[in-house]
Amino acid sequence: MRIYWHELKKLLTSVAVWGFVAACLLFNIVIIGNSGDKYADFVSAVSKDTGYILDQSFYEKLARIAESGKQSEYLEQLQYETDGVTDVFEGYETKSIGERYIQVTGSTGYFAKLMLDKYSALQKVVNEKAKNDESLTLYFAGATHYRHQLLFSTLMGWLLTEGALVSGLLVLLSVGYEQIHGTESIVYSTKKGRQVLRPKLAASVSAGLGVFALLALLTFLIYFSVNEYEGVWRSSVSSLFNYRIDLVTGNRPFITWYSFSILTYFMAMLGMGLGLVLCFSLLAFGIGMWVRNSYIAFLVFLVVNAVTVVIPLQIPQTMPVGLAIKYFAVLTPTLLWLKHGIWFTDGDIDIVWKHFETLGLVVSLVVLTALCVLAVNHFKRKDFT
Amino acid sequence: MLVVNHVTKKYGNFTALEDITIKFTNGVYGLLAPNGSGKTTLIKMLATLLFPTSGEILWEGIEITKLGEEYRNIIGYLPQDFGYYKNQSPRQFLHYLAALKGIDRSVANRKVTELLELVSLSDVMDKKMRHFSGGMIQRVGIAQALLNDPKILILDEPTAGLDPKERVRFRNLISEISQDRIVILSTHIVSDIETIANRVIMLKDHKLYCNDSPSNICRTLEGKVYETWDIKTVTQPYFPLTQRQEDGRTLVRFVCESDCTEVARPVTPNLEDVFLYVYRDEAI
Are residues B151 and B67 in the same domain? Predict the structure, then answer.
């Protein structure tokens, strides 16, 4: 444990790390600064009185609200948007989505079956959502799509990018620390020297996760202090006002496998984000073990991630192997990161797996942990010339 | 006892060390050879940083790679290029290494202070090492090597950067602590080991050249080392060793395989003479 604290201290006293964190935070503040939406704030404020469920009580309470000036325009807009809305899941069928994806990709056999199975399973979820009137919640009414994308796609996306980069940097800094300072011979010849990678990994992973958590905390503290969410936290993310843009099937409802409120979806995204940052840490560790120079290792880390995205695009998907690579590539950390905007949903044309984000996270963690164990074992017999 | 048993180390086609066999018991061993002769390779193998391509290194009869932690627990090592954390103080740095050496925190507190006093760094023990001189850094290195009170102390070029006073202090320290441990001191500075080494190990062409006491090694040149003020009078083939200026004249020390007593004064050979003569074909 003492070694762990020493390793952690080495990382947290790095000026470069804190400089990077400050730059990330500044960047996030710029995004937040340009994100204001008065109408969305108005909807959230109103929902404190009306509630977020679009039932009889909501309409009665909304009718009693009187506003003046700009607020009255917002009220009018809200009344217009909520007037006569119906449950989008009532009678909604998902089979055609799967069929359309299969048609476009030319997928056959096992993967086509997986795709059909996924949408068959999703139909049951949709039926359940219809039964529970899950879509009849307010969210941010007409501002929903913008606010949802801003928080869960733009801001969360950048935060994940920053988390992946900073965790990768921290791991590579930790693994390469002795090489940078010329202390390899001293450190690795000590009693615990050949085991030092374990506390190094633990320290750098916890530092990476800690920095990600700190960045998230500060970013969201600022975000939620300038964007009003108080009245809508429990509104469903599968609200009828929320939708996703799908170039293959057209815009369609935002269907999650489980019923998520904005709050639970936010927490789930953060949890998944932490898991993904852990994956990037393990990937960086594996690379750092094979490439001694930290700077080159970081370059390799970036290249490996880029290659994960490029390879599935370059292989012709008219061949079954091309499709297989595309579908399995989705389970890698980089593709999971790219698809963060549709986590916990059925996914898109590239995804045949149910709960792809959870499956991808588990697969990535298992594979990367195995890679790290191999690297640690290799390190025990490594020559330091 | 530490035994290097028919050890060979190869890097691809290059053989850095070939079939080395040495037995180490308590005392000071001077590993004397020019740069590039395989000294550091041997030292690194003893410090478990390199693994032999063939052969084995045994501590008390057990291979050191099998002993792992147990073996590393009894070694103290000062590498040739001693790295350190510039933004840490010697105390912080030694505490980190104490943790790596598995030394209990309370013992480490005492030991770190003691050792920094021993190497005359007590007044700067909390100052960042960023502004330390080469000699001060080297003393930090010596202190860290002694942290775990090692049974095997491996020092690669330990006096590099030390001033003459520090060098003498270091030699005295090594003499003091070598009674109940193995001290392996690698250097190409002959004076470092001449007075303190019980045995001198010399490597030549990546093989073991000799492993003997300094006096026996010097004896190999007995009757062959001479000094003269006028080297031009020496007609037999000779190998010049050193030159000394005195009163505007040059005193030349040289080795000659044949008798030169008529033109030069025979002198007692020292380790430096042997070193220069043995490695006469190599860059030193």
Answer: yes
Domain count along chain B? 2
ipTM score assigned to the predicted complex: 0.89
Q: Does B214 lie in the same domain as B227?
A: no
Contacting residues of A for B75, CB less than 8 Å apart: 189
CATH code (residue B213): 3.40.50.300
Q: Kindly list the residues from chain B whose CB atom is less than 8 angstroms away from the CB atom of residue A292.
A: none
Are B121 and B29 part of one and the same domain?
Answer: yes
Q: Which residue has the tokens 């094979």?
A: A290
Mean residue pLDDT across chain B: 90
Say if residue B48 is in the same domain as residue B128. yes
Closest CA in chain A for residue B69: A191
**A116 belongs to a structural domain:** no
Is B102 within 8 Å of A192 when comparing Cβ atoms?
Answer: yes
- pLDDT digit string, tens, across residues B37-95: 888 999 999 999 999 999 999 999 999 999 999 999 999 999 988 899 999 999 999 99
Rg (CA), chain A: 24
Q: Is A192 on the interface with B (CB under 8 A)?
A: yes
What 3-state DSSP class applies to B73?
Answer: coil
For A315-329, how does the pLDDT look when each residue is reduced to its tens digit (9 = 90+)? 777 777 888 888 999
Cross-chain residue pair B97–A190, CB shorter than 8 Å: yes
**Contact between A189 and B50 using a beta-carbon 8 Å cutoff:** no
State how far the Cα of B68 lies from the Cα of B70, in Å rounded to an integer.
5
Interface probe, candidates A6, A191, A195, chain B, greatest B C-beta count within 10 A: A191
Cβ of residue A377 closer than 8 Å to a chain B Cβ: no
Domain that holds residue B232: 223-267
The region, left, alpha or beta by phi > 0 then psi within -120 to 50, assigned to residue B102 is left
* Cβ separation A194–B72 shorter than 8 A: yes
Residue A25, pLDDT above cutoff 90: yes
B164 in the same domain as B31: yes
Does a structural domain hold residue B108? yes
Give the C-alpha separation, A322 to A349, whole Å: 14
Token output for B57: 């290194």
